[in-house]
Amino acid sequence: VEDSNDSIMAILGGILAPIFAPLGFGKWQPVAASISGFSAKESIVSTMGVLANVAGDDAEDTMIVGAAIKAWFPTAVAAFSFLLFNLLDSPCLAAIATMAQQMQSRKWFWFAIVFQNVFAYAVSLCVYQFGTVMAGGPVGVGTIVALVVLIFMLYMLFRPDPYKHKKKTARRSVAA
Question: Which residue stretches of the chain are H helix?
Fold first, then answer.
């Protein structure tokens, strides 16, 4: 399309943008770039360049590229949250296909994919919300949710072993 605002990625990014607003990047452009990252992580950069309307000659001028992309993120914490989310979410399709082939279980495969994306969302939520508060921003509903998520993650990390008294010893098939 001539105008990227009329593309399918713009429509899909616009639909999903409210989900990513608590992470600091609630505009459709960074959401669309993250969606393109599911096919290959390196496509995030090229998608951001295309959506910023950066031509081949302008791509060498970092000021033009920086100004175009800076408009998508209200703060540096939001940009860091975007980078962190894309670092932690599920890998590219080639790695996902390899993971599916190696796991040989649909249940565990889908659990791994969902877990990676939920974990990326939770960590990015905490980083953005706490970073905004530390930078002098207001405490809101998102900050309270991030605090609950952080407490849950710390509890799961440091909880006592629930299987401590249920451990079974292995039986030997050959007498020693």
Answer: 8-20, 28-36, 43-51, 62-70, 76-88, 93-103, 106-134, 141-158
